[in-house]
């Protein structure tokens, strides 16, 4: 059986942690598709280019290597902003599509991102749209940054999350929107364990959990 679990939602909603747990539970590989956009943005920044420049951004996406995805500088405000800018370029999205599809094409996979259930695997049987209030998501992102020893202002981090979501929702290419058949999961008051339990309950209707 080729089981694809598509997990979409805004920044810091808990998609990554949930995706890793579901992948372990179902014995499937996991792809954090945000890394593809982060690595593309990082390549553009390294070359001194502008992430919003379509030609430069698409060339960076087409040149991605496994080593780019393994870099340890793909998180943080500059990488966040660059990822969101390259992600609005249609040529970047087209360049990254085949890799995502082939990743899930074998025995199945869990993929998390913004457009997995709408564009990458529109026929996936199991789709979750994971959300939380912007205050809760900003606080989680702020905790991640401070845990890494980075100085961060909570209000500023909440504002950055809000801005990134607005860009992802309003872009013309594959905007962030729940698939019509996605199961909605609000994690505002849930920790990682409760989120996983709730996800399994929801998926039970679609998957042999
Ligand atoms: O999920 P993450 O925060 O790492 O994603 C970084 C950025 O990459 C997002 O803000 C979004 O612009 C873009 N992205 C996307 N489509 C995906 C995954 C990420 O547009 N499937």
Structure characterization notes:
The mean pLDDT is 95. The chain has a single domain (3-203), classed as Rossmann fold. Helix content is 54%, strand content 12%. The chain has 209 residues and is α/β, with parallel strands linked by helices. The relative contact order is 0.21. It has a five-stranded parallel beta sheet, sandwiched between helices. Residues 11, 33-34, 37-38, 83-84, 87, 113-116, 164, 168 line the site of cytidine-5'-monophosphate (C5P). Cytidine-5'-monophosphate binds at residues 11, 33-34, 37-38, 83-84, 87, 113-116, 164, 168.
Q: How much of the sequence is in beta strands?
A: 5-15%
Distance between the termini: 13 Å
Rounded to an integer in angstroms, the radius of gyration calculated over CA atoms is 16 Å
* CATH class group: Alpha Beta
Name of the CATH architecture: 3-Layer(aba) Sandwich
Name the CATH superfamily classification.
P-loop containing nucleotide triphosphate hydrolases
Give the mean pLDDT.
Answer: 95
Helix and strand element order = EHEHHHHHEHEHHEH
Q: In DSSP terms, counting alpha (H) and pi (I) runs of 4 or more, how many helices? A: 10
Note the overall shape: globular
How many separate domains? Answer: 1
Class per helix and strand makeup: alpha/beta
Count every beta strand, where a strand is a DSSP E run of 2 or more residues: 5
Q: Give the % helix.
A: 40-55%
Ligand names: cytidine-5'-monophosphate
Strand order, sheet with most strands: 2-3-1-4-5
CATH topology: Rossmann fold
Contiguous low-pLDDT stretches (5 residues minimum) are: none
Sheet with the most strands, sense and barrel status: 5 strands, parallel
């Amino acid at each position: 059986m080729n089981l694809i679990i598509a997990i979409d939602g805004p920044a810091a909603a808990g998609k990554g942690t949930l995706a890793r747990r579901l992948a372990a539970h179902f014995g499937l590989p996991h792809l954090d598709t945000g890394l593809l956009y982060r690595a593309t943005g990082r390549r553009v920044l390294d070359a001194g280019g502008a992430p919003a420049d379509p030609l430069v951004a698409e060339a960076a996406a087409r040149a991605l290597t496994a080593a780019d995805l393994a870099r340890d500088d793909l998180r943080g405000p500059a990488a966040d902003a660059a990822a969101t800018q390259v992600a609005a370029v249609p040529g970047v999205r087209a360049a990254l599509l085949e890799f995502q599809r082939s990743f899930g094409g074998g025995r199945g996979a869990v993929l998390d991102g913004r457009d997995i259930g709408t564009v990458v695997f529109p026929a996936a049987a199991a789709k979750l749209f994971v959300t939380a209030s912007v205050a809760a998501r900003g606080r989680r992102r702020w905790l991640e940054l401070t845990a890494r020893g980075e100085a961060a202002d909570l209000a500023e981090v909440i504002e950055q999350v809000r801005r990134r979501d607005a860009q992802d929702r309003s872009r013309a290419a594959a905007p962030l929107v729940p698939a019509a058949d996605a199961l909605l999961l609000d994690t505002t008051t849930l920790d990682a364990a409760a989120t996983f339990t709730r996800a399994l309950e929801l998926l039970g209707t679609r998957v042999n959990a």
